Amino acid sequence: MKKQLIILSAFFISMTVFAQNDELKTAEKAVKANDFATAISAVNQAEGLIANEDQKTKAKFYYLKGLVLYQNGNPAGDVEKIGEAFNQLINFEKETNKQKYSAEIGALLNKMIVTIAENASNNYSKAIETKEDADYLKAAKEFQQVYVLSPRDTSYLDNSALVYYFAKDYDSSIKLYEELLALNYTGITTVFVATDKETKEDIVYGDKKSMDLQVKLGLAENPREEKKESRREMIFKNLAQNYSDKGNNEKALEVISKGRAEFPTSYSLLIDEANIYYKAGDNAKFKERLEEAISLNPTEPTLYYNVGVMNMDQKNINEAIKNFEKAIELKPDYADAYNNIGAAIIEKAAPIIDQMNKSLSDFKKYDKLQAQQFEIYKQALPYYEKANELNPKSINIIQTLMGLYENLEMTDKLEKIRVIYEELKQ
Length: 426
Fold this sequence. Notes:
Among the domains are: 15-100, no CATH class; 190-227, no CATH class; 299-425, Tetratricopeptide repeat domain (Serine Threonine Protein Phosphatase 5, Tetratricopeptide repeat, Alpha Horseshoe), CATH 1.25.40.10. Mean pLDDT is 88; it is low at 1-19. Strands 2-1-3 form a three-stranded antiparallel beta sheet, with helices on one face. A hairpin with a 5-residue loop joins β1 (190-196) and β2 (202-205). 74% of the residues lie in helices and 4% in strands. It has helices spanning 2-32, 36-47, 55-70, 79-96, 102-130, 133-149, 154-166, 170-182, 208-216, 232-245, 249-262, 267-279, 283-296, 301-313, 317-330, 335-347, 350-357, 363-390, 395-407, 411-425; strands at residues 190-196, 202-205, 220-227. α1 runs parallel beside α3, α10 (232-245) packs parallel to α12 and α14 runs antiparallel to α15. It is elongated. The longest helix has 31 residues, at 2-32. The protein is mainly alpha-helical.
């Protein structure tokens, strides 16, 4: 009985092999006849029988599967499935060290990569001009397809993530940026550059051999290798920006925290963190991060300006003025800083005005308080005039000056600036 079972088992295996070969022959004939419906059916039936086949049969199956999905370059083909099939064949033949179909499939794969990469670049250029989300989305999908076809070219995944962001498809952008972080992608690469002798323009070459050849032929000079900086810090920034634009500030801050743990001296990530706190309405944390940023970049005037604004919000008037003055020291034409010093000085008159309102029946006290009020206005006036000089078209500054001139009874200046105000209003 055992002998009979063994014979039956062997017979069954032989039948399976014949069925497998028949399906592959059917698929091969159908591909040559461009009958892809029949070819797909045959490949699908063969796929369930391929696991235990020999190297030669498996290679042929992967080869035919790729061709069936490719369909002679049908633009409606599923790029992800095609890329998976082509790379499956190439990787299999590389593992078995028997490369019968890899050259042909590799050529088709490279053709697809070049075509889709060019389309992606062209559509991205178009999107920059139109600013249309749909155009950005099209380019983003194509950049992603290039990566699917060639997973070693991780920079295309980076491109895709960024362009998805431009398209406002935040979920897709987040997914790809998180994939890049999981892959420990850095984007650090070596670029081969030489100067064209005729045009004197720098040319980037695909590899060192191509660059050296151009130099040897006398067509280029000054050959050099340049290292591209890591993109990882920027990935944290962009991922956080995606979450922030989605309104998820908590997740954005979580991403920034991870980024700062990896790049503790990053001024850029620190500023992003400050801005997210500001967007979330946490002014105390915003101010705290700006003060930390000043320690990293003490010559940036906008930092002092923003800290000044936060101090004004917290009624720390003298501290606010101090920061605005530092901003002007670093940027002498900082019109907004001059304007805000004026505003901070006028803020000092608020308690005096409160006392005046309570002393309406005490004319002597009222007049004394008003004199103090006008003295403060005189202190603020030069700053507003300087702000107006630097930003002469600001209606807000002009309106403030008109009020000051009127209160201080500076009639000549009031009439002159009123003419400018009426012109700007038109």
